[in-house]
Amino acid sequence: MAFQTRRVQKSLDNKQVCGGLDTLTRVGAFLVVLAAGLAVGGCGASTGGGYTTEHISAAKEKMNIMKSATEWEMAHQAFLAGELDKALKGVDRSIAINDNVPKSHVLKGRILMERAELEGAIDSFNKAATLDPTFVDAPYYLGIAYERINRREPSLAAYQKAAELEPSNAQYVIAAAEMMIDLGRCDEAEAYLTERGGSFENNAGVRQTLGHLAMMRSDSTKAVALFNEARLLAPDDNAILEDLARAQVAATQFADAESNLSRLLKSPDAKDRRDLQHLRARCLVEVDRKLDAREALIALTQGQSGAADTEAWVQLGNLSYVLKDATRTRQCAARVIALAPDRADGYVLRGLQQRRDTKPQDALASFDKALALGAKSDVLILKGMALKDLNRTDEARALFAQALQTNPQDPAAAAMLTQVDEQN
């Protein structure tokens, strides 16, 4: 039965080929004939053929746009993941399909910039700007690329162009102002920011940049006020908190600075920052929390990094001397001399402890070594005191006078000179 059925079907097929077409078959045959006609240019009415060709071209263009967008998206994801080679191949495929998309050229420029191929990046950003002069990403990233190769004037021009295209975006205004600062045009930068102050009344970045300008002008009090305003607007921004703490140190607001540094050092990104730990230790000393400062400095001298941190050993040695910790003072002096034999600090520290140990002759030798390494008026006074301990009063007086001549504002030199004169 099955065999018979197949034969019947074959017979029907033969009839259809010979002309016994049903409705479905006639439609299919029409489409085949139409496709054939399109392939050879068409012999029918010109209006119908042109209309069909136009729509096929439009469909093809739409498909290319979709393919280009897909390649761009995959390239963008690879870029965000740090897979630069994969990202570059993807964006090149996107551009090959559709060369007229500005954001594709910007993405390629960003990838090249991360690969340190800055000239190629600049070409890509310029291409994007040519395709769409209003596309703000092109001048902004062009400014970054120029900045990386230290071409500051073109960088500034690019940032200013971005700010003109999108004046409501503070990011571009700040970038331009910071480049003016790098160029030493601080007054211009301040005017550029303040002229736009109304537009960015609640922008933390603008106030932060104005704070940097105040710090550059040594106006730490104004800087503290500006950074405080910025921090109120962006309370979770640790960069602003660090700027505030540094300005507070410059303004001798050590208690506030220590509090902010302690908060900052609890954050995951900053907890291992040795520069901030140094700054906090200094604040602890300044607010007379010397034991806490000693603990902080001891922690800074631990481990491989601490063993090589000369500044930490110097600070710990000075504090240990103040706290009359003779053993640790000697240890720190020896460590500083070993780490930095060309610095005077270790010899000064050693001389101080030797003098306290009533070894004025040894102290004199240490101070002489420090002076030979370039120490100034303070060490002249220390050497004079060691000479005074040895009853070499005339030599001591000459050194106190020399120290006062070197630094007429040094009260210690004046006091020691007066003391020697009174004793004589």
Structural class by sheet pairing and helices: mainly alpha
**Count the strands?**
0
Percent range for β-strand residues: under 5%
Overall, the morphology is: elongated
Question: In whole angstroms, how far apart are the ends?
Answer: 142 Å
Nearest-integer average pLDDT:
86
Which spans have pLDDT < 50 for at least 5 consecutive residues?
A: 1-48
Summed up, the helix count is 24
* Run of helices and strands: HHHHHHHHHHHHHHHHHHHHHHHH
Question: What value does the Rg take, in angstroms?
Answer: 39 Å
Largest sheet: none
Portion of residues within helices? over 70%
What does the model show?
The chain is mainly α. It contains 24 helices and no strands. It has a domain at 376-424. Helix content is 78%, strand content 0%. The longest helix is centred in the N-terminal third of the chain and has 35 residues, at 46-80. The N and C termini lie far apart (142 Å). 36% of the residues are buried. Residues 1-48 have low confidence and may be disordered.
